[in-house]
């Protein structure tokens, strides 16, 4: 059997090698001071960041980068499991066993006796029903994680409420509510405190998330796309200004707006 040193440097060591690396990083005598200082709360933001970097690589179809980003995300799970083991809560084997058991239990049409002759929509409904049974008696909105990105959490809260009938019947009512909330935001801007403006802005975003749900649009993905489009077009503005020996600070809004429209027109023509 190889000793720890052999495993640490074995390129084919797989998950046992990664676990050994993590254990060494947290070793009180031999480990890394930074890793030893961390706890669940300090590592959680890195976990979220790594998940977004995975999504970013997928969005850009950067498959070589995705391999590395998935590794970074896997390492986060190993890191949390190592800290949990040290605290006596559970270890990585418990994590793997739990997710394996859950996947088998939630796919009776694959691993059990139920028929696979179901639509994807019916399978999604069955999945949610199984989750509800696992949670047991609970309030409608219980279990929607507080740590989710706000737009994602808004959609999940609204989906839960919709299951018990608390939902608008069509997008018409949602659009009308957006108009109402936008008017309230303008009123708050002119007459209310910053805290009240923030509240009204939050109400408008919440209804926008509801519209996304009714349109079957992922608001996080839509906003990522809008961010990418803005970045792409503004980069073109910078490039065109650079051709004249200038940068955006040396331009003005009218010129940059005209260049923006040029970039927009070029993208539409290329489609």
Automatic annotation (TrEMBL):
<dbReference type="GO" id="GO:0006203">
    <property type="term" value="P:dGTP catabolic process"/>
</dbReference>
<dbReference type="InterPro" id="IPR048015">
    <property type="entry name" value="NTP-PPase_MazG-like_N"/>
</dbReference>
<dbReference type="InterPro" id="IPR011551">
    <property type="entry name" value="NTP_PyrPHydrolase_MazG"/>
</dbReference>
<dbReference type="GO" id="GO:0046076">
    <property type="term" value="P:dTTP catabolic process"/>
</dbReference>
<dbReference type="GO" id="GO:0047693">
    <property type="term" value="F:ATP diphosphatase activity"/>
</dbReference>
<dbReference type="GO" id="GO:0046047">
    <property type="term" value="P:TTP catabolic process"/>
</dbReference>
<dbReference type="GO" id="GO:0046052">
    <property type="term" value="P:UTP catabolic process"/>
</dbReference>
<feature type="domain" description="NTP pyrophosphohydrolase MazG-like">
    <location>
        <begin position="173"/>
        <end position="235"/>
    </location>
</feature>
<protein>
    <recommendedName>
        <fullName>Nucleoside triphosphate pyrophosphohydrolase</fullName>
        <ecNumber>3.6.1.8</ecNumber>
    </recommendedName>
</protein>
<comment type="similarity">
    <text>Belongs to the nucleoside triphosphate pyrophosphohydrolase family.</text>
</comment>
<dbReference type="GO" id="GO:0046061">
    <property type="term" value="P:dATP catabolic process"/>
</dbReference>
<dbReference type="Pfam" id="PF03819">
    <property type="entry name" value="MazG"/>
</dbReference>
<dbReference type="InterPro" id="IPR048011">
    <property type="entry name" value="NTP-PPase_MazG-like_C"/>
</dbReference>
<dbReference type="InterPro" id="IPR004518">
    <property type="entry name" value="MazG-like_dom"/>
</dbReference>
<keyword id="KW-0378">Hydrolase</keyword>
<feature type="domain" description="NTP pyrophosphohydrolase MazG-like">
    <location>
        <begin position="38"/>
        <end position="111"/>
    </location>
</feature>
<dbReference type="GO" id="GO:0046081">
    <property type="term" value="P:dUTP catabolic process"/>
</dbReference>
<dbReference type="GO" id="GO:0006950">
    <property type="term" value="P:response to stress"/>
</dbReference>
């Amino acid at each position: 059997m190889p000793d720890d040193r052999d495993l640490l440097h074995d390129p084919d060591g797989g998950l046992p090698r990664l676990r050994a690396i993590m254990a060494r990083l947290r070793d009180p005598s031999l480990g890394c001071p930074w890793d030893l200082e961390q706890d669940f709360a300090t590592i959680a933001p890195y976990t979220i960041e790594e998940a977004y970097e995975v999504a970013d690589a997928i969005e850009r179809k950067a498959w070589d980068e995705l391999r590395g980003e998935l590794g970074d995300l896997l390492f986060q799970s190993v890191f949390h499991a190592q800290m949990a083991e040290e605290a006596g809560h559970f270890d990585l084997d418990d994590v793997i066993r739990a997710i394996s058991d859950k996947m088998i239990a939630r796919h009776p049409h694959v691993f059990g006796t139920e028929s696979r002759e179901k639509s994807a929509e019916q399978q999604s409904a069955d999945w949610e029903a199984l989750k509800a049974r696992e949670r047991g008696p609970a309030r409608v909105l219980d279990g929607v994680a507080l740590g989710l990105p706000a737009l994602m959490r808004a959609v999940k809260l609204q989906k839960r409420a919709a299951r018990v009938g608390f939902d608008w019947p069509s997008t018409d009512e949602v659009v009308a509510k957006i108009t109402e909330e936008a008017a309230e935001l303008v009123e708050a801007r002119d007459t209310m405190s910053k805290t009240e403006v923030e509240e009204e802005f939050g109400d408008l975003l919440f209804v926008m998330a509801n519209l996304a749900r009714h349109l079957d649009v992922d608001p996080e993905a839509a906003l990522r796309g809008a961010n990418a489009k803005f970045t792409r077009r503004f980069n073109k503005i910078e490039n065109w200004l650079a051709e004249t020996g200038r940068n955006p600070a040396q331009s003005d809004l009218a010129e940059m707006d005209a260049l923006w429209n040029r970039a927009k027109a070029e993208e539409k023509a290329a489609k």
